[in-house]
Amino acid sequence: MSDERENDQNLTGTSGTDTSEMAVRRAKLDKLRGLGIDPFGHRFERTHMAGDINKDFATLEGRDVAIAGRLGVVRKHGKAAFADLLDMTGKVQVYAKIDTLGEAQYALFDEVDAGDIIGLNGTVFRTRRGEVTVEIKRFEVLSKALRPLPEKWHGLTDVDLRYRHRYVDLIVNPEVRETFIKRSRIIAAIRRYLDSHRFVEVETPTLTLLAGGGHARPFTTHHNTLDLNLYLRIALELFHKRLIVGGLDRVYEIGHCYRNEGIDTRHNPEFTMLELYQSYGDYEDMMRLGEEMFSTVAQEVLGATKVTFQGRTLDFTPPWPRIRLLDAIKEHTGIDWLQVKSDQEAVAIGEKLNLDLTGKRTKGMVLDELCSEFVEPHLLQPCFLIDYPIEISPLAKRRPDNPELTYRFEAFINGWECMNAFSELNDPIDQRERFEQQAREKAKGNEEAMPYDEDFVMALEYGMPPTGGMGVGVDRLVMLLTDSPSIRDVILFPVMRPRG
């Protein structure tokens, strides 16, 4: 049996009878058309949602309602039938009986299947078993489902198929619907928080001449009319700081970025980033804003600042601990990084510690690997790792008390980086030198080194006020607040390799 056929059987749960079931449904569709009924319906005016009827039963009992949604398994009992009707808010039981509908309408109800979408008018009541129900007085078919739902409505559990056929996943797994509704609420809460702090939402290009503002390999494309090679953006930063130069003192953007890198439980090539910039601020302001924003969003969406993720309680309550990066490196490896003076010395240390340094032969790249391997797994509760070395912070302001370090932090939760922020470098001379240093990094084999952006340096030469800036991985925040172990669980349509 081919993989394609096996996947089709897993999706329908029909063990090889998919074709015959679809044939039965096509025959029912033809029968509806023969009766002069459009099996793909028209507009339907709803008065209530399923969730409303369950929640407000006390006031709706005995009243007529108009609802629409997808049918679950139809349970027939002679001249009566029950089914669940599902919409975005949940499900409510519906009841059809021949005495109420009449023979013609009840015969029509006999042609509907699990998965069909119907609209109905009926009366709210409670059954003898105590279940809130709508007795159907009249109904119409709004969309005939030609494919049966998987596993006779018992759910779609194959993870690969869930991601590939998200529409089916959303139909049969209500907890998945709830995750994506919650994602929407999380993003709305972020916007409310920033809007209330006088930030202005902006939109910047996704197609760029240079892939700057971060360390990552970009996707490339070509614009035919202009005959230009372009990049999909890897970050939002450099355009936002141009806006700070232009006098927009507080800006933010929630948008997609693209990085041509690996795929795992925390990385997808297309992901959602929040970036924000605040004039006359610094990385201390960003720490306060970041911990307050995360705790505010958790409180608004979940009703608490303590979050359970995969069995572990995470406390988002501010203030979060501040830990110096080099102190953490020394604690977990015994290495005093400020005493490491050359790329060769750094590589030798990394090799001694059995780090994978393939394509990573510079001091900054070794430090990044050290942090990932030995420090980050210990950063489970929300905290800030602060004061990163200049080699891996080309856009951050130097610390005057130690020019080898910068005013930069990354926030970690559950061992994951969730924020990256700086006191932004606003010295155009220093910025030009940093870009030149990045060019040397690229020459040494660092494919993720930043390109030289002359226009950005020109913008800084007009004068940019002291600024605090921050990037947030929105998908990872959603993972934490929805108890989702994989980034693919919180992206509606993740990138997938084609079947076969």
Protein model, in words:
This protein has two domains: 3-155, Nucleic acid-binding proteins (OB fold (Dihydrolipoamide Acetyltransferase, E2P)); 174-321 and 381-489, Bira Bifunctional Protein, Domain 2 (BirA Bifunctional Protein, domain 2, 2-Layer Sandwich), CATH 3.30.930. The protein has helices at 3-12, 18-34, 50-55, 57-60, 98-109, 159-164, 166-172, 174-196, 237-245, 283-302, 325-333, 343-352, 363-375, 428-443, 454-461, 474-482; strands spanning 64-71, 75-77, 80-87, 90-97, 117-126, 132-143, 200-201, 207-208, 220-223, 228-232, 250-258, 270-279, 306-309, 312-315, 322-324, 383-386, 398-399, 402-406, 408-413, 416-423, 467-473. The chain is α+β, with helices and mostly antiparallel strands and 500 residues long. Helix 8 (174-196) packs across helix 10 (283-302) and helix 11 packs across helix 13.
